[in-house]
Amino acid sequence: MAMNKHTRMSEEWERWLDASLDKGCRITDIVAAMAAAHYDAAWAEATVRERQLQRSRPTPEAAAAQAGPYRYGTPTIRHRNNTIVTSDRTVRVAMRIEQPVVAVLDDVFSPEECDGVVALARVRLQPSATLSPTTGENQVKDHRTSQGAFLDDADEPLLQRLNRRIAEIMHQPVAHGEALHVLHYGVGAEYKPHHDYFDPANPGFAGTLKRGGQRVATLIVYLNDVEEAGDTVFPKLALSIVPKKGSAVYFEYVNGDGQLDEASLHGGAPVERGEKWVATKWVRQGVFK
Ligand SMILES: O=C(O)CCC(=O)C(=O)O
Ligand SMILES: [Fe+2]
Q: Between 3.30.200.20, 2.60.120.620, 3.40.190.80, 2.60.120.1130, what CATH number should domain 83-284 receive?
């Protein structure tokens, strides 16, 4: 005889659900655990998704602060000077925009440091995945036809040195940064225009937003000279940055009210000749866990 399936949740289960979502558990795993406890699977999935959506909605006060066009304040980066001095290297500002905040920086990594990062990444490359906005799962999609690797070895001296320098350039604590992420593009590979922040309207991002909050700024360091094309493009600014070994592009896109700057839309244009290597640092509002 078929057992009746539960379609109502006890307070205890509600607390368990919130704790699971806090931990960033995948919806499929949560639903599987509920089904094993005799919840109706379809009902469980709808309930979990609704709860996730509810939790991601801003409070009325936050929603009011976030309304309206993006309000530009003082940039986090000190890019109004010609140089940014760090503890081990002086970086030159080659170009700056105020709205949105974008800066092109020279001499961020030495040529040897670029080669060292490529060597660390080469053995770990995987086809690039992106987070699904709906389910929060990692997925490989054709809008990102590159290969990537997170360099998360905390004991590697080169990474320690570069992570500290990057934090000083970005004027952010080291602990707010995700691990350095390296991308490799062959001929024809590209990364279609996107925002680096997570759109809070997408329930699939709730899990990653728990890990230090929203992304607020990005530094993309070019690890080689690309023979032809492969620019970093900002379609809303009609701006295109040609990769140059050791140089970087910086941009920021979240202000103190939590507004998100849509003008930060950017992508990696297809490489036409040669190959392209970049190292990206994404920085969060809080400590990245
Ligand atoms: O390769 C590029 O120029 C863009 C990379 C990028 O958008 C990213 O790493 O977030
Ligand atoms: Fe990006």
A: 2.60.120.620
